[in-house]
Description:
Low-confidence stretches: 284-296
Distance between the termini: 51 Å
Largest sheet: 2 strands, antiparallel
Amino acid sequence: MGSTNFGNFDAFCRDSTLPVCNVLSETQSQRGGWGGCDLQGIPLSGDRYLGNLGSILLCGIAIAVSIVLLLRSERKKAAVGRREMQLFLLGYIIIEICEIFTVGEFPLSGTVRIAFTGIHIGMIIATTWILLLNAIVGYQVLDDGTPLSIGLMIISGAVLFIGTGYITLDTGFHWTRQFIPDPNNHYRNIALYVLYQLAPLVFLVAFLVLEAILVLRILGEIRPMIYLAGAALLFALGQIFNYVISPYICNGTSGKIDGALFETLFTLLSVVTIWVFWSSITEDDWPIASQPAGYP
């Protein structure tokens, strides 16, 4: 696979602000041998700076909004998948806390930044996996909210978190020297490429497909699809800003902001829309509410 771009991170880190770049960089930060536009941030003492302040503020807003949704979910006593949705929101809150220190460029030591990055990337794959399981819960294969349902979700998510987190930390700290980034080989890391770039995308697409089948074929409704499609569109816009438009924003603003700010914003809006979608298919006045075995 040496002649392909699969597993290469140099172009991604050159054009985007991604947490994975912290463990690939020689400086254990967003700045590395890949070049590109560097965020200038706010100058601090000791030749330090605070970068991506907009993303940091949006992460704080995302945490607050997610806590509100978490509490509102608690009030939906009869909703299918209430505890499972709360697990997803809790995972997203942890992601946003980590993002403050991995994408928002605080003047941290490299060791601390790598530790936050390991948690961040581990939680991304675990949380998208939990979101996929939320879609499966809607089919009532297992009774939702039971110790078995919650336990399987937590255990499987923990396995993904620990495995991905270990590989991320090993890449940054060089424990086994199996994942040492090589600038001469495009900072290639097949394991992180699969776990960080591909697996969450597969989980998200599977979630959308399963929910679309649930809404259209089982519930026989159209309205919730508006929310589901909106969530997908908002998430896609965030990725486009971060992966495609980001270098143009950074160069156009002389390093003041980049696409990461918009990625944080659109991802937050996508999460809110997913919650609205979930709420809409579990509301008390749903047209098939007369069928107790379905959605109460």
